[in-house]
Amino acid sequence: MSDNWFYRQLLEHGIAGEVAEPLALLASIAAILAIIILATVILRRLLRTICYRWLTKNRYRWDDILLDHQVVDTVSWFVPILLMNLSIDALLPVDSSIYLILKRTAQVCFVLIGVLSVNAALSAAGDLFRLLKMKRADVLNGFIDAAKIVSYLLGIIFVVSILSGMSPWGIISVLGGMTAVTMLVFKDTITGFVASVQLTATDMVRLGDWVEMPSYGADGDVISISIHTIRVQNWDKTITTIPTYALVSNSFKNWRGMTESGGRRIKRSLMIDIDSIRFCDPELLKRLHDIRLIRDYLATREQEIREHNRLLLGEADCSLPINGRHQTNIGVFRAYVIAYLKENPNINQDMTFLVRQLQPTEHGLPLEIYVFSKDKRWAVYEAIQADIFDHLLAALPHFELRFFQYPSGHDLRWLGQRNGAQEGQAPH
């Protein structure tokens, strides 16, 4: 204690050494606590105030992320701990037990604050990348989570090393000998990290992607990507949590290609009652000529058919529609659908555009519409699709076509009433 300032002052004031030594030790500890309190209250608060004021007043946006993740607040704790460490060296004898306890306490605090600072900086780095690269920040999430886990592990190793007096490398070598146990304990973390790296390398999923994974009941937007799980907010606002490795080992649908393209696909069929399909007679063609969208088509088609029949059949009898070429109501309706969609401003004409017949089934003849709407927003897309089929369903009777549907209760009642009326009129 001979080099302690408090001890020397007490001796100069005539206090015996046996009494001066514990008093000097208490005074040193009190001084250390006072320095810590003053550094925490004054210096740390002053440093935080200056940094906060500068970060909030400047014109840059990226540094606001440091405030959001409390990077400055966490790092500022180094000031009181550093002063504590210096005051311990200056005021306490190196060979005393209290020196060893406080010195190790200060070192443990350094490690803890270092780990917290590193984790805050990593979180800020992820948000900063999101600010610069928009939705592509999720490519770093797996690496950031892995780096945080590594920092926590290193922090635990150094804390144990400080408290036990062992070398950190000795602790790491012991853990290396427990590789099998470590692999078992961190199996999910290792699997998730590998899957996260694969997702990142292949760019399979990003924040904000609309994904569909029926096996997990997921159908909605990705709101969170971590090393262990991916969280999807479904359209009914429920949250589905999917293990990260499941997206690598199982199949799922990502709608990002649709959102980044020029339109959203409309693929739906009109089921035409086959019994209503027939050749167009002159009366029907005359009525169809009044439809503006197909007026030119009908005139051109009729001229082409007359010329073909004249060259092919000569004077043969064309009064029967099966002789030669004749227009059908389903063919004219298909031409009308094409003209209607070509004129629709909500349809992207530069993408795939098909109006085709599919294989007839027991439900009728499917007339499939395969086009893309310009607007990809869900509600608007559904409205565009509904408007198209509202119109086409209402237009079918003008072509003397019927939409196929199973008989309903109303149809059966009507049929029963008609049969009953016919039986009542039949002669006895």
From TrEMBL:
InterPro entries: LSM_dom_sf, MscS_beta-dom_sf, MscS_channel_2nd, YbdG. The keyword Transmembrane helix applies. Its main location: membrane. Residues 188-256 form the Mechanosensitive ion channel MscS domain. This is Membrane protein. Keywords: Membrane, Transmembrane, Transmembrane helix. It comes from the Bacteria. It is found in: Membrane. PANTHER family: MINICONDUCTANCE MECHANOSENSITIVE CHANNEL YBDG (PTHR30414:SF0). The chain crosses the membrane at residues 23-44, 105-125, 146-163.
